[in-house]
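A quick aside before the break. I want you to see a complete sequence-to-structure record at least once, exactly as it would be stored in a machine-readable document. Don't worry about memorizing anything.
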Amino acid sequence: MQAKAASSAYPNVIVIGAGVIGLAIGWRLAQAGAAVTLLDKGTAGSGASRAAAGMLAACAEAEPGERDLLALGRASQALWPAFAAELEHAAGCTIGLRREGTIIAALTDDDRANLQHHLVFLRSLDLPVAWMPAAEVRQREPHLASSLRGALWSPEDHQVDNRRLAAALRTAACKAGATLHEGVAVERIAHGNGHIEGVVVEGTLRRADVVVLAAGAWSREIAIDGLVPRLPVRPVKGQMLALRMDPAAPLLRHVLRVPGAYLVPRYDGRLIIGATVEEKGFDQSVTAGGMLSLLQAAWRALPAIEELPLDETWVGFRPGSRDDQPILGPGPVEGLVYATGHARNGILLTPVTARAISELVLHGTTDPLIRPLRAGRFGVRAAAA
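That is the input. The structure line, written in C-alpha cells, reads:
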C-alpha cells in the first residue's frame, strides 16, 4: 500500500473505531505528524476494550494451527513494557501493567493430565512455560483449593488494566494531535477510481487519503462500496463479573486460569472473573446461567471468594474472524487498511498492531508478522468502482 500524499508530508487519515486498537493506531500516526480523525459510534473505549480482562496471554492461549498469531502475540509481549512506559509518560497516568505471570491450575487428576499434555505442546513451540508442583503453587497463592494438583506456570503472560489503558490511549492520542469524534456512526466507506475517498456520515462525505477500519465486532456493519463479500467479523459474546477484595490483603496476586474461568486481580482490589463464549450476536443480557458457570468455576479454585461482595457484571463482544485470528493490513482498495478481528487478543496485540499499521500507512511497508493475516485469506475483494 502507498498512501496518497496530502498537503503535508503525511496522509490525512480517518480511523473508524476508538477502542484500544483504533486509539493506539491514531496515537502513533499523530505522533508521526499525520492528520488523524478518530470516529466512534459510541464512547471511546466503551466496547470490547472496556469489557476485556486485560490478559497478555500469548503463551497460555497458544493453540495448534495458530503459529502466525503466536508470533504476533510474542512480538507484542516483548513490546509491552516499553509501550506501557511511553504511554504512561505521554498520558500522565498509570495503566496498571502487572508482571507477576500466570498460573494455570489443575484441580483434579484429569486437569493435571490435560495440562501436562498441553505443556508438551507449548514446549514444542519453545515457549517459556514449566510445570509447578502443588506445594510451590500454594506458596505463591495460599488461598487456592485444597484439591490443587499442581499448575502450569507461564512467567511471561502478564496483565494490564484495560480500562486504564483505553483512557490513557485516548488522552495520549488527543495530546499528540488526533481529533476524536464520539457518537458518530459511519454509514459507509467510499472509494472511486481505485482509491479511498473517505467515509460517509449522515449523508456527507468526509474525505481522507487513508481509512483504517478498526471497529472491532462492528466492522462488518460498515458498508464498503462494492466490497464482495463483507469483512467476515462477528461478535462473540462474553459475560463477565467482578468481585471486590481487600486491596491490602488480596486473595489472589497472579492471573489464574482454571477449567471454565480465569481470574484477574487488580491493584485496586477488583477481581475480574470471565468469560463465557457465546455465539449470540449482539445480545447484551447478563444471564443467571452465565454468572453461575463463572462463579462455580472460580469458587472451585478459590473457595474464599464466596465471602466477597459482587462489584459489577457486564457483557462484551469480541471481534471474531472466521479463523479467530486478526485481520490486519491493506484492503482491496488503495488507501483502505484493516485492523480488526482481534477476537480474545485485542489488548495483547495493541502495541504490535499500532506499530505495524502505522508503518503501513506512513511508509507503505507491510510487517512480515502481519502478512499472513491479511483479509485476502478470506477471499475479500472489491468490485470495480
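Two observations worth writing down. DSSP finds eight helices and 22 strands in the chain. The longest helix spans residues 67-91. We'll return to this after the break.
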